[in-house]
Amino acid sequence: MNHETYGTGPGVSAPAPASHTVALKTSNVSMAFGPRTVIAPLDLTVNAGEFLCIVGASGCGKTTLLRLLAGLVTPTTGTLNFLGQAINGPARDRAIVFQDYGRALLPWRTVAGNIALALEACGIPKDQHRSKVEQLAATMGLSHAINQYPSQLSGGMQQRVQIARCLAQDPKLLLMDEPFGALDAITRQNLQDEVARLAQERNTTVVFITHDLEEAIYLGDRVVVLAANPGRIAADITIDIPRPRNQLTTREDRKFLEYRHDIYGLLEDH
Amino acid sequence: MTRCFKWLIDQSGAVAFMAGLLALWQILSYYELISPLFFPSPARTFSTLWTQLLDGQIWPPTLATVMRMVYGWVAASIFGVILGALIARSMLAQGLLNPILEFMRPMPASAFIPVAILAFGLTNQMSTTIIAFGSLWPVLLAAIQGFRSVDERLYEVADALRLSARERFFKVALPSALPDIMAGARVGLAVALILAVVTEMQASLPGLGQNILTAQRAFRTPELYASVIMLGVIGFVASGLLHWCERHTLRWRQAHG
Amino acid sequence: MSRKFLGLVLPLAILIGWEAIWYLAANPLESISRPSQIALALMHGLSDGSVLLLTWQTFESALLGFVIAAGLGVLTGIFLGLAPQLERLVRPTVDLLRPIPSVALIPLAMLIYGFGVRMESSIVAFACIWPVLLITIAAVRGIEPGLLEVSHALQLSTWQRISRIVVPAAMSRIAVGLQLALAIALVVAVTVEIVINPRGLGYGMMSAQQSLQFDRMYALLLWTGLTGWGLSRLSQTLIDHYSPASRAQLPRSPA
After folding, report:
1. How confident is the model over C200-209, as pLDDT tens digits?
2. Which of A267, B83, B180, B250 has its CA 20 to 30 A from that of A152?
3. At residue A123, does pLDDT exceed 70?
């Protein structure tokens, strides 16, 4: 099996280093549900174009953090800022990919219809829908299934549809909540590389949640470790591995293994 | 090919069964083993029906009954969906209205006919009101159920996309609730037909119901049967149309990977 | 706990408001009775036995028709469910007869039986047999094929097969069908009484209206609702108790 074909490819030149403009900033953000503090006051910064991975054990509040960033929940204390503007609620330039793809797609619309939903929401004129949908479907490898319903698709395909829909929003921030957790290993690897490539091409800022440490190191420019009870940042590690990355060689790279070793220890402690 | 063949066999078998029953009825009637008054032979019944169809006698009352049924049902369905959407949105509304709704669920709509007669007399208005009232409940209850069960996640997707309230309703809530609504509408249509017949009999309004009553009083049973058959046809066609509509709009439910 | 009280708010508010309007209005409409008068009329009717008599009359016809339909429907349904070739033969005829509104047969039943229990229960039976039949067929068809194989392997007689395997396996779904049919039975019975039969609650309401006893009319309406509600609660409790697996299998709907 040639992993190079799944990787982001040798033909793509090394990207410019992620800019140091702060895109996303949380200040003193905490989240409590009644007496239970899910997230203790935390500060987090994400630079523009950066691919940030957040890892942590179950219940450490990473999904809650993501939903705060999406604007679906309001923090108990603190503020969130994206591109200089306060996050008061959801916005179309902040797209969120849910973990339960089966519930996040409209079952009565085809793949094309689901992607078009984002175009409709963004007010894009109807005559442009068809070409944009076909483009996005091609990007995500969905062209052959464009007129099928979600129930006819495998899990991996459904998740691709969700990602395609999010891309249709042309987002500046892409939030992903353990998107590949329910998929088989091969599909997971394919999608990892596709997301990495897309983020790089479009220079999108990505916040990617996972419980899979290796996935986090493989994908991220930075890995933040979240400890549980209450949720707080235990570590913030910059991943100094060049792109494009490769499923086979990167995962065997000395630095990769070092990061894995170090962070694993942190996950264990907390 | 064998599937087509099998279907043909089934259909001809069923037709043969029906024909057999009719033949039996005809024989019993011919030898007067059953009362020719209560059970006129198929020959007499169908020839009466045929005559009525040809000379146009049966069409005005049929149309009257159909219009009555459709008006009441359409009004009730629209109102039921809108009201159902509103009630489902608010936990407060549900808490307040639930006992009343549960009380009305098993209630015979025809029990309100005396009240309706009091209010409107023996008029078309009384009939339309009762029909609409009766077919409202199945649609309303089904709509509430349907709108309540919209997956939270879909609403979050709608929020994340910043859909307007109108878009939320027409693109997410309504399609999601549609299977339940259509099931309720099917029951509502059956109720509408029943109440159309009942109110026609009650108030001597033009329609197949009144036809049946008139035929009974004059002991003209073939005509009675002819009208009953027409009612059966209306019921059959109406539910067939709805069933077709359901299959068409809900085809995504049949799709399997 | 507070949820239960919330549900009482609206009915109480309506009753109190209605009574208040009567008190305050200069020329109250005669035909819209005061809640207090309705309650009085109901108590009167209960105490002098007339309401209970009417209720019994309605139930008599409803239950008789129900039992006939249930018996015929379940037996035929089991038979047809186990013999799919026969079912395919018979099904189109059933599909043609089923949409006939039972009320349309009232004049015919009148012709044959005149007024009374037999006429009403025959209409009820016609209305109830179709749901029972169809649901029973579906229930029997839905039995795990493995169970039927076991019955073959054990070489059970037909009677044993039906009583030991088919009925218990299909019972919970059949029970839900019977519950539905019971509700239909009550509704149809009252409807027949409203239209023509001089017995039962429906007749009581019509005659109250015609003799301008509006309090009594509303009282009987309320009582009919309570009866229907009580019956549905009772049947639900029975089902929950004896076959809890059948809970929430079919949407409940009035006929």
Report:
1. 999 999 999 9
2. B180
3. yes
Helix (H, G, I), strand (E, B) or coil at A7: coil
Share of chain C above pLDDT 70, in %: 91
Q: What residues pair up with A45 in beta bridges, in sequence order?
A: A25
Chain-chain contact of B161 with A152 (C-beta, under 8 angstroms):
no
Q: pLDDT tens digits, residue range B67-108? A: 999 999 999 999 999 999 999 988 888 988 988 999 999 999
DSSP codes, C176-225? HHHHHHHHHHHHHHHHHHHHT-SSHHHHHHHHHHHTT-HHHHHHHHHHHH
- Burial classification of residue A10, based on how many CB atoms lie within 10 Å of its CB (0-12 exposed, 13-18 middle, 19 or more buried): exposed
Percent of chain C that is helix, strand, coil (3-state, to 5): 80, 0, 20
Same domain for A152 and A233 = no
Instruction: Fill in the DSSP letter of residue B168.
Output: I
Q: Which of C8, C92, C191 is nearest residue B14 as measured by Cβ atoms?
A: C92
Of B160, B175, B255, which is closest to A151 when you measure between CB atoms? B255
Q: Has residue A24 been placed in a domain?
A: no
- The mean per-residue pLDDT over the stretch B58-75 comes to 94
From CA C41, how far away is CA C38, in angstroms rounded? Answer: 5
**Residue A148 and residue A210: Cα distance in Å, rounded?**
29
Nearest to B160 among A90, A120, A152 (CB): A90
The order of strands in the sheet holding A77-82 is: A36-47, A22-33, A77-82, A85-86
Which of A124, A152, A170 terminates a domain? The answer is A170
User: Testing the interface with C: which of B6, B10, B65, B107 to mutate, by most C Cβ within 10 A?
Assistant: B107
Q: Collapse the DSSP code of A236 into the 3-class scheme (helix H, G, I; strand E, B; otherwise coil) and give the result.
A: strand
Q: Which pLDDT score is estimated for B8? A: 84
Q: Is the Cβ pair B21, C108 closer than 8 Å?
A: no
pLDDT in tens, B191-233: 999 999 999 999 999 999 999 999 999 989 999 999 999 999 9
- Verify that B161 and B129 share a domain, yes or no: yes
Amino acid identity, residue B246? E
How far is it, in rounded angstroms, from Cα B109 to Cα B193?
12
CATH architecture of residue range(s) C34-246: Orthogonal Bundle (1.10)
Residues 6+ apart with CB under 8 A from A143: A134, A137
B100 touches chain C (CB under 8 A): yes
Contact A152 B151 (CB under 8 A): no
How many whole angstroms separate alpha carbon C215 and alpha carbon C35?
9
Look up the domain containing B22 and give its range.
Answer: 1-34
Q: Do B114 and C221 touch (CB under 8 A)?
A: yes
Contacts of B142 in chain C (CB under 8 A): 251, 253
Q: Do B131 and B12 lie in a common domain?
A: no
User: Whole domain around residue A166: which residue ranges?
Assistant: 106-170
Cite the DSSP H helix spans in chain B.
2-30, 42-54, 59-89, 91-104, 113-120, 124-148, 152-160, 165-167, 174-203, 208-217, 221-249, 251-254
- Which two structure tokens, joined as six digits, stand for C118? 């037999």
